[in-house]
């Protein structure tokens, strides 16, 4: 049992456990730590919590329920405890395993790291998971946005985002440059800034494994390894090679490579098998626009995945509705993908869709698919009726603008 300095866990409710095979053992009344978030966080939190609780109640006739446990982070924690991210929050996620959060301000200056990055690193949440699908009626910049329905598994701990970099002219950068030019015969220009791009078989394979397991469990037709291996052979190219190696080592029964489909199966994938293919990152951006229906699960290194997930979200109508999660082995943190939009804080105005759909991911992760489906149905029908928050209303002809809380109320009416 963890010890907490500032908060007291609920006296009701039970802990989520982990089974021998790594799957979650979810009680009927799981305790879920949550962070409302800064800025618009409390607005979208209130709206979303109502919707999730109502969906669980409706789907399971009162036999299952969330027991919420508020934990501190962000501006409120700084005000109350003079800490941006009290250890209590990390302990709570470790103890209860599944948590959800609204957006957090990134403190500027003073050497404070992004709270989101800290949470990911401390809990080793190595996969950033972003499903991207279209909701009928959402304004989109493309003709057939409904053709894109992908889930992106982005590696979250390595690559140029590992934070290993040195400023141009710094002693560290100068030492690295002189070492490399002298010992490895490179020709790095003097006074360059230096960043390092580490990518390992361990980091790549565990990420790709999560993507493949998802594809198999959800009956998806394909999983695509997205990389820039034609240029960066020993990092991005290795990511692709390690992916195929993993298929050979562990997924022969459930997966087939695209190459084998052509060479051994006459171009027809064997029924029920996930086709594993790879695409060069720049081509993948084109494919997402031109042939979106050919893609399903996408596994990417860190940097490519960052770009690709926002580009795909824009294609189906923007980030306002895009959910996300950071997932590791046995731990998961679900989160809205947008920021704190401080100018709208407390106005009960913004779209709670991103957080609400992150809750849908959380429900699915915990085996609550029926409740998740209700929330999705509620959102779909409410948007189709053109009763939406300002962001969608301003782009939709004939729409009626609702407050954040009213939007939640409408969704619940559809259950
Ligand atoms: P932002 O908070 O995402 O807001 C930018 C704009 O996006 C808003 O002004 C608004 O557009 C629109 N928007 C965002 N959320 C919306 C919602 N729920 N419904 C409707 N529209 C929404 O980005 P930012 O202003 O760059 O960042 C503000 C703070 O958030 C920073 O401290 C940043 O570090 C932090 N941040 C946190 C996270 C996170 O916690 N995961 C992620 C990103 C940023 P209009 O003005 O056009 O209406």
Explain the overall architecture:
The protein is about 40% helix and about 15% strand. It has about 425 residues and is α/β, with parallel strands linked by helices. The strands form four sheets. Strands 4-3-5-15-14-6-7-13-10-12-11 form an eleven-stranded mixed beta sheet, with helices on both faces. α6 crosses α7, α9 runs parallel beside α10 and α11 runs antiparallel to α12. The protein starts with 16 loop residues before the first strand and ends with a helix.
Describe the structure in brief.
The chain has 415 residues and is of the alpha/beta class. It contains 14 helices and 17 strands.
Properties at a glance:
eleven-stranded mixed beta sheet; 17 strands; binds NADP nicotinamide-adenine-dinucleotide phosphate
Compute the separation of the termini in Å. Answer: 38 Å
Helix content: 40-55%
Structural class of the secondary structure composition?
alpha/beta
How many separate helices?
A: 14
What oligomeric state do the depicted chains represent?
single chain
Which residue ranges are poorly predicted, with pLDDT under 50 across at least 5 consecutive positions? none
Mean pLDDT: 94
Principal-axis shape equals globular
- Across the major sheet, the strand order is 4-3-5-15-14-6-7-13-10-12-11
Largest sheet: 11 strands, mixed
Strand content: 15-25%
Number of strands: 17
Bound molecules: NADP nicotinamide-adenine-dinucleotide phosphate
What is the CA-based Rg, rounded? 22 Å
């Amino acid at each position: 049992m963890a010890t907490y300095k500032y908060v007291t866990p609920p006296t009701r409710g039970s802990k989520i456990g982990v089974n021998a095979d790594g799957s979650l053992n979810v009680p009927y009344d799981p305790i879920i730590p949550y962070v409302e978030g800064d800025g618009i966080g409390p607005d979208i939190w209130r709206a979303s919590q109502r919707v999730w609780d109502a969906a669980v109640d409706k789907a399971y006739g009162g036999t299952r329920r969330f027991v919420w446990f508020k934990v501190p982070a962000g501006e409120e924690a700084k005000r109350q405890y003079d800490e941006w991210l009290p250890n209590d929050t990390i302990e709570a996620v470790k103890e209860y395993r599944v948590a959800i959060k609204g957006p957090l301000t990134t403190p500027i200056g003073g050497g404070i790291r992004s709270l989101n990055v800290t949470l990911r690193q401390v809990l080793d949440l190595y996969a950033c998971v972003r499903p991207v699908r279209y909701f009928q009626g959402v304004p989109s910049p493309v003709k057939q946005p409904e053709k894109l329905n992908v889930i992106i598994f982005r590696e979250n701990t390595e690559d140029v985002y590992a934070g290993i970099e040195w400023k141009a002219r710094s002693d560290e950068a100068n030492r690295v440059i002189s070492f490399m030019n002298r010992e490895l015969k490179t020709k790095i220009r003097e006074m360059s800034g230096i960043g390092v791009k580490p990518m390992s078989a361990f980091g790549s394979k565990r990420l790709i494994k999560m993507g493949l397991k998802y594809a198999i469990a959800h009956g998806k037709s394909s999983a695509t390894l997205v990389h820039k291996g034609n240029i960066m052979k020993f990092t991005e190219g290795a990511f692709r090679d390690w992916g195929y190696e993993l298929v050979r080592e562990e997924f022969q029964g459930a997966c087939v490579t695209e190459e084998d489909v052509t060479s051994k199966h006459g171009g027809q994938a064997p029924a029920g098998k996930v086709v594993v293919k790879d695409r060069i990152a720049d081509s993948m951006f084109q494919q997402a626009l031109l042939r979106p229906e050919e893609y399903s699960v996408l596994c990417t290194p860190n940097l490519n995945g960052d770009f690709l997930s926002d580009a795909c979200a824009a294609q189906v109508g923007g980030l306002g509705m895009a959910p996300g999660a950071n997932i590791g082995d046995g731990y998961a943190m679900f989160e809205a993908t947008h920021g704190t939009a401080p100018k709208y804080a407390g106005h009960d105005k913004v779209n709670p869709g991103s957080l609400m759909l992150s809750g849908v991911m959380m429900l699915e992760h915990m085996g609550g698919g029926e409740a998740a489906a209700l929330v999705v149905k509620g959102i779909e029908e409410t948007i189709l009726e053109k009763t939406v928050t300002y962001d969608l209303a301003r782009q939709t002809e004939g729409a009626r603008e609702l407050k954040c809380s009213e939007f939640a109320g409408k969704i619940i009416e559809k259950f």
